[in-house]
Structure formats: C-alpha cells, structure tokens
Design goal:
CATH class of the largest domain in chain A: Alpha Beta
CATH superfamily of the largest domain in chain A: Nitrogenase molybdenum iron protein domain
Strand order of the largest sheet of chain A: 1-11-10-9-12-13
Oligomer: homodimer
Number of domains of chain A: 3
Shape of chain A: globular
Largest interface: A-B, 126 and 126 residues
C-alpha cells in the first residue's frame, strides 16, 4: 500500500482523487437501448436479455410458483439471519417516521407539511457472482414502511434463466411479488417507460455496474428520480494507537473486495499503527478468495500519517467517505467535527460489514464525495413532502397587503389581483354587515 | 379556454400533456460554456457576461458599498412587507427542524441518524424584468436555519452592470454577503468549478430560464446536487359550485402571467362554474399589463368538467400539479385523496399568490409532474443525514454470526473476516478471564 507522511494541504486534492468515472463513452449505448425499449417494449427487453445475458426469456415476470419455491432453496440458518437483519433495519427505519408539521404562521394563516409515499418505485438488484439479497432488504424494507403502493424488482437472470433464490426469497419476505427477470440498461429503460409486462415507476433505487449507473442517470431525462448518483465503494478508517491493526486491516480488505476500483484509506496519527496495518493487510489479503480484486483495489489505496486529530478530521471532511470507521480514544472529537460521511462506524468492535448487513442502518450510501451533499437511502427517500395552507378571511385581511406590495414590486399584477379581488369582497361584505347593524 | 366535458380515461394522458421540454438542442451551448469557464475561470465569465448580458463586468463580486447602498433604494413599505414574509417563512421552516434519531436496534447495537448542513451552497436568482427577491427569501431563509456555512448568490447584471436593489437588500437581510453579478449558464458553471472570484459550491438552488435549467442539469455531471429539475409553472384548481368564479379566474391568470408556457387547469364538478370562470378569465385578462404572456398560456389551458369528486381527485393525482387550489365543500375528501401535488391552497380565501410570497411555505416546488416523486424545497433540502453505529463487544457477540452467515452467502469472505477476527479476539479474552477466575 502507498504510505504518505504528513502531506501538505496543496497535495490533498490529488491525494484524495477518486478513480475517474466517465460515462460519455457508454452514453451512446444507453441512448440506443432506451430508444428501442421505448419503441418496442417487451420485444426489445427480450432481445437485449438475449444479447447481454445470453438467455432467452419469454415472460420476464416471475410466476407465483417460481416465487413459492424459493424458500425451500434457502438454508434455514440464512433465513434466520435475514430475518434478524430485517428486524434491525425495520426498527431503524421506522424510527425515522415523522409527524405532520402544522402551525399558524400569522393570525388566520394555517400552514402544514405532510409526507406522502411515492406511489410507484422500482428496485434494481444486480446479478452476477454475488447475490445481493442484502440490498433487497435495504431497499424494500423502508419502501414498505413508507407505504409505497407498487414496489417492483428487476434483476438479471443467470445462464439458466433464473434468479438467485435468496434474492427471490428476500423480496417475497418484504412483500414484493412483482419480480422481473431483467437486468442492465434494458431493465432501467423498461422501468422508465413501462412495457406491457414491466410497469413504469416514478423512482428507481439500487446498485449496479457502470452501465446500470449510466442508465439510471439517463432515466432522469425522462422525468424519473433515482436514489442517488453512484460510484465505486469506499472506506476511510481514521485511527490512533488504540486501534487494533488486525481489525483495521480486515475492514480495509472488506471494502477492497467489492471491486478493483474500490478505494480504501487509512488516516492515522500513529506511525506504529500505519506500519502494522500495512503488514497485516498483506497477510490477510493472501488468504482471500477474492484476492485478485482486493489486491488491485489495495494497490490504489493509501495509508496516510497526519500530525494531529484536527488534520485527520479535515482530511476526512475533504474526502467525504461513503463509509468512515473511527477507532480513536478521542472519538467524541471526531463525532463533533466530521461533517461529510455517509455512515460512521465507531470503535474497535463495529466493523463496516455490520452496516452492510445487519446493524439496522442503510447500506445504500453516497460515494464519490457525494456525502458532501447527499444522504444515504433512508425513509425519506421513499416519501415526498407536500405543503398546505388555508387562510381565513381575517387572515387574508392581515397578510393580503404584504402579498400585494411584493407582487407589485415584482411586476406581477395578476398575482396582486388574486388578493385584491378577495380583499374587495371581504371589505364589501363587512360594509354591508355594518350597514345592517 | 378549451372546455372539455367528461373526458374518458383513455384521453387523460393526452389531456394532461405538458409542453415538451427538449434540452438536447441547447446542450452543445451548455457544454461549450462549461468547458470555457472550467479552463479560463473569471476571464470566461467576463467574456460570456459581455456576450449574453451585453455589459462589461471587471470584478463580479458586489462590493461592500454596493451592498450598503441597497436599503436606501428600497421603499419602506416594501421593506416592511419583505420582513413580514420573512418572519412567516422562518417560522414554517424552523418548525421543520428534527431531533437526532437514536435507538438500540438489538442489545449492544446502537444506531443513530443526524442531519448536518451542506457546507457550501449557491443560489441563482434570475434577472430580467421581474426582480425575484421573493425567491431570495425562499432559498436563503432555510439555508440560514440549516446552518449552511457558505451561501453565495449569483444573479445577472442589468445593462448598467447592476443588480436590482430589492434582490441585494433581501440577500443581505438574509445574511448573504457573497453576491456575484453573474447570470445564465456561465454563473452555473462558475459555481460548479469555482473561479478565482466565485467559490465552488456543493449544491445549486434557484429558478431560471431553459438555459439555466439545462446548465443546472449539466452541473450534476460534475458531482453537484441541484434543488430539483425544473419546468414551466403550473396551477390546477379543483372546484365545485361553492367556489367563487371571480377568484378562480384571478388565480388561473396569476399563474398564466408567469410565462407563455405556463399551464393552468380547472377541474370542476360544476358546469355552471366552468362557464362563469371561462367568461371571467376573458374579462380579467383584458386588464392585465402582462396580457400577451398570460393570453398565450391561457390558450394552452383547459377547463375540464368531471362527473364526481373521485374522478377529479384521480385527475389531480395523474397530473401532479405544482400548485393545487381546492375550493370545494368537500375539501376533506380532497385532502385525504390527493397524493401528488407540490403545494395545496385550500378554500376561497387562499390565493396561490399567498404561497408565492408570504404564507410561509416555500414557493420552489416540483413542476412537470415531478410532484409524484419530489418534494418542494424545504429545510431538508439544505441538510444531509449521516448514520452512525457503535457496537459493544457483547453486541457483536450477538449480531456477529448473522453478519457472518449473510456475508458468506453473498460470497464476500473479507466482509465475514472483519467480524470473525473480532469474535475470535473476544472469545479468546473471555476464555483467558474464565481461566483466571
């Protein structure tokens, strides 16, 4: 691993550079697939599944019997683990429910804000070697709590035309019965426009490779929302001499095994820790089944020594890591000073993988420095807030003149009229009533 | 206005079609300006200001004296109105503050979620005929409540190289002193990359013409967030025979005067109301200073009669209006059944212009059907939430095996290792202690 000692501020931005993502090269492919799926619907979906996934799928919706047979194909111990993880995720996301906010902003002017579920959402779950049923939990559990009416799931079929039973089982456990064997750009396009088989949705969630990521970005051109822009996974560990180098090394490697473009960083005030972590990474790496992938990611990664905690915190904030592990005697200092991070793991016994699976927090987090301005997926990701106002006649008598003056100053006469006409009527009615009495 | 009676469901999507927005044609312009501003910084900004705004600006940052002279140029009555509007907006957005959410998801597993302000944000305020100081209030007040550290404002200079004093006054009242005379695509590009004069920000807020909208969308390619995708302004009024046709007409016109591409719709269960509104619109339109603009928007707009409230509510939800006025005896029915709308105005004495200026709700709202999946600007637009977890040794003894099973099943051995190594150490320590006792 690359070791850097006391880097000067001038080189920080180079030091914290992420692998560059350039989607322009694949945009033409994405555009083409979108055009065809929009035009030909299911036929295009079938065509691309044959081309990219090398399998012929006639009806891409999973049948009831395909869903019903999944539980028997998942081991009891895994089912129990999934249930325990689900319980924690449910608790944490239920705790995020909020009440409607209502107040009288001035006499007779009642304003409130209510959150409502997004009616139709689509989840994308990658296929390939690792069946990411944990992502099904992370995306489907909050959708159910939010009360989204229609939740569909797309995932690419394997060579035999099937989805991994753990994915099907978990989806079904979370109440999803609209499951489609469709992957890649074509699945995102199908959820964007809708086909005869796959319904159109309003927002798409889920991880994916660069094609899926580019396709999700492309879908926003057609009025869809996406959970967040995505990039390769990242971990930054900030640690002092109280950290356990064996644990730190295992955490760095757990993130590195995600992909060759993953990035892991150690920022430490302890030179001894830095050296021990460096050695320990080599030892553990050698035993990993995904050693090739993890090794490539480790080669791009850095161990950075800094002189004090403040510099360490500044470096963390400048990077804005997706995952941040804090192993330090002065953890309170870091918690107070960290502003940019997706999810934070505190202490020697909180491995990052706890958040990936089971602590209860969401593992869909902002990468690529997006922690500066984006939240990870949370209950609010499935809701939108609507504001309401109701003004009484006396309320408008009070506030109306303010609106009239401002509308006039902005040159918007019709905006003013809408108030003036109402005030005239209120005044006329009052006058009439006074006349009677 | 176009009158439609009892449209069948098959024609709804045509009926509710919005004016098409196609940014592809201007993307080349946007790309070019971005490239130049990125490469040449302030020099490019100056060049484009000369080209597009026809004025030469040497130093685009407003001087302290330029800011100081603004209050004297704003009338006392307008200043008072701005203050009253600000008070209401402040109250409503302060009420949206939330506490940190913390819980023990399973024994020894502590999870919490905290919101932190986005550090650097940029506000864009259009120039032109109407000085939109109300948008300054709507965007700057919640930024201050959220605690954003650096808030900057860009607005295009007029032919004499100045900004409208009401904009400068309002910005300053909201605590903004970094104000830049820069508009259009070049201002968005400057906030995206930063120049020597204009700082780079993490998120851009604010309305604008199609060039600004396309530029904001383009900025997302460079890691920035934007408040929301934007389109022309819209209003849908749903009303029965208890609505006042004079008021309804004034509301339709207040939205129509925004631009020729604005869209206004009346959905009503009362044929009598429909006919009276139609006549009244003609009468009021004729007296408006912006009659040309409003007339064009009205020509594209529709008065729709439907047979019952349920159909009316379904139509509203299918459209997802930015602004929705409900004037009906059965307002409770609508409040329960409306799912897609930006902001809702209830009753005969709640004109839409109240929300544009002073009721307290935000006027930056989702257009173009985005109310299906986006919230309007609110306090959370300036915050991001970070999750935290801290697991005790006994907590990891409990939860660790769940993580191990799931990581193994996903084929992620290093994820499992990070737990296994910790569990080994805990077990070894326990054994040692047992041995001692």
């Amino acid at each position: 691993m690359n070791k850097i000692f006391a880097p000067s501020k001038e080189i920080w931005s180079d030091l914290l550079q992420r692998p560059i993502q350039d989607f322009e090269a694949i945009e033409e492919t994405v555009r083409g697939v979108f055009l065809q799926v929009r035009r030909d619907g299911d036929a295009a979906l079938q065509r691309f599944t044959r081309e990219f996934d090398k399998v012929d799928i006639q009806d891409c919706r999973l049948s009831e019997s395909e869903i019903a047979e999944a539980p028997a194909l998942v081991s009891p111990s895994l089912k129990k683990a999934i249930q325990q993880a689900k319980d924690n995720i449910e608790k944490f996301h239920k705790a995020q429910q909020t009440e409607r906010i209502a107040l009288e902003t001035s006499p007779g002017v009642y304003c409130w804000q209510e959150k409502k579920p997004i009616e139709k959402i689509g989840l994308y779950i990658p296929g390939g070697s690792a069946p990411l049923f944990s992502s099904v939990l992370m995306l489907a559990v909050p959708a159910a709590i939010a009360g989204c009416e229609e939740v569909i799931l797309c995932s690419p079929p394997d060579a035999s035309g099937r989805l991994h039973p753990a994915i099907v089982y978990t989806a079904s456990l979370c109440g999803i019965n609209q499951i489609y064997k469709a992957g890649g750009i074509q699945a995102i396009a199908a959820m964007t426009f809708g086909t005869k088989t796959v319904p159109k949705v309003y927002k798409i969630f889920g991880p994916g490779n660069q094609f899926v990521t580019a396709a999700k970005q492309w879908a926003t051109r057609y009025g869809l929302a996406i959970d967040m822009p995505a990039g390769p996974s990242e971990l930054l560990v900030v640690a002092d001499e109280t950290a356990d180098p064996v644990f730190v090394a295992s955490d760095l490697l757990s993130q590195a095994e995600h992909g060759a473009d993953s990035q892991v960083l150690l920022v430490t005030t302890s030179e001894a820790l830095l050296e021990r972590v460096s050695l320990e990474v080599e030892v553990q790496l050698d035993k990993l089944p995904r050693k090739d992938i993890a090794g490539k990611a480790i080669a791009n990664s850095r161990l950075i020594w800094v002189k004090d905690q403040q510099t360490a915190a500044d470096l963390v904030n400048a990077y804005g890591p997706e995952h941040l592990i804090v192993c330090s005697q002065r953890e309170e200092f870091y918690l107070e000073n960290i502003r940019n991070a997706g999810s934070v793991f505190i202490g020697n016994y909180t491995p990052e993988s706890a958040g990936d699976y089971a602590s209860g927090t969401n593992h869909t987090l902002p990468t690529n420095g997006y922690a500066r301005q984006f939240s990870g997926v949370n209950l609010d990701s499935y809701l939108k807030s609507i504001t309401y106002q109701k003004i009484s006649e006396s309320g408008l008598m009070n506030l109306g003149p303010v609106i009239e003056i401002m509308a006039e100053a902005e040159g918007l006469q019709a905006h003013k009229n809408a108030v003036s006409l109402r005030l005239e009527k209120i005044r006329a009615t009052l006058k009439q009533e006074l006349g009677k009495s």
